[in-house]
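#structure-requests
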Amino acid sequence: MSEDVAAATTLPATAAETSPDNPWPLQLLSQKLKMHIDRAPSAWIEGQVIEMNRRGTNAYLTLRDIDAEISLPASAWTKVLDRQEIPLERGSRVVALIKAEFWLKTGRLNMSVKDIRPVGLGDLLARIERLRHALAAEGLFADSRKKRLPLLPHRIGLITGRDSDAKKDVLRNAALRWPAVEFDIREVAVQGNTAVAQVIAALRALDADPAVDVIVIARGGGSLEDLLPFSNEELIRVVSAAATPVVSAIGHEADRPILDDVADLRASTPTDAAKRIVPDVAEELARVRQARDQLRRGVTRLVEREVDRLASLRSRPVLASPEAMVTHRHDDVERLKGRSQAAVTTAVVRATDQLVHLKAQVRALSPQKTLDRGYAVVQLAGSGPAAGVRGDVVRHPDQAPPGTPLAVRVAAGRFTAESTGGQETAEE
């Protein structure tokens, strides 16, 4: 007993501490693996039953992933399978509660099925709707994220099944509408567990090609299980992230995978997709002819309208008889000239009359007129005994005492006189 305890104390505590000189016994590794695997919880998984064998009370299953080439062997008690109302068959889609078990003696890892349930159409539809609502809440279906398709794509990427009717419908209808259109065709699996991976790979390759203007994902009708790859979340997110516009043409009008919601354009059928991604050459030519006719009519109306306008302008008096304007202005000038001359003449006459009147007034008030009425101007003719200077006008008798020589000016001339004295006239 002491030897076993001593040996245990010398063994490495962890796998990383083992070495060629100090290895673990196989038993210890198996025990540790079993302890680690036993601590792993059970997990619900989804898959498809591709093999199922019953051997007594045991059943051996092989489950395959829905969207990838991955398989997992598992075992279950037959009573677990017998609890199902509808017996499981190969190809059934199921969800199973799996618990990993490690057999210590044989070192074999076993996946034990503790419970298993078939996935019906109702479950699938409910799951798709839950995913649809979750992606819609993220905004992946918003109109603001939708990209406009080019008016005339030169190269169309087509993702479809190998030699499928959907491929033929798209190619035939597109060629009928626009014969010059080019296609880059990627044939992939459109159902089954490899469909998602192949469609995603083709989509990414076409999206990376700058020559591709639009990508069409086309598939004919089928059951709900057949169309499940086009409701795969990974595929939906890749389509949402694509820089090239994506058109969904899956199934028939009634089919509604989630791809229809995230695509930039949903076509009800592959034929409808061909009609909506390329224009009809006949219709476009008819539109060109119609546009040319409209342009021709528009130009004709414009020319006719301008001709009528020119004729109207030419018929106006100013253009029909341009000298009339000069004649009219000449008459205006002559009339204004006459008015000006009349105004000037009137002003001169009035000024002349005013001048004559003023002249008469001046003459009436002049000293000569006073003399003409018999008045005389008496001036001192020399120095006299009174104060005064020769030439002063005598205004007071005191200026001319007796003996003062005087010069008297009358209307017709002047004469001399001598003062004999006088008296002052009393003022009134």
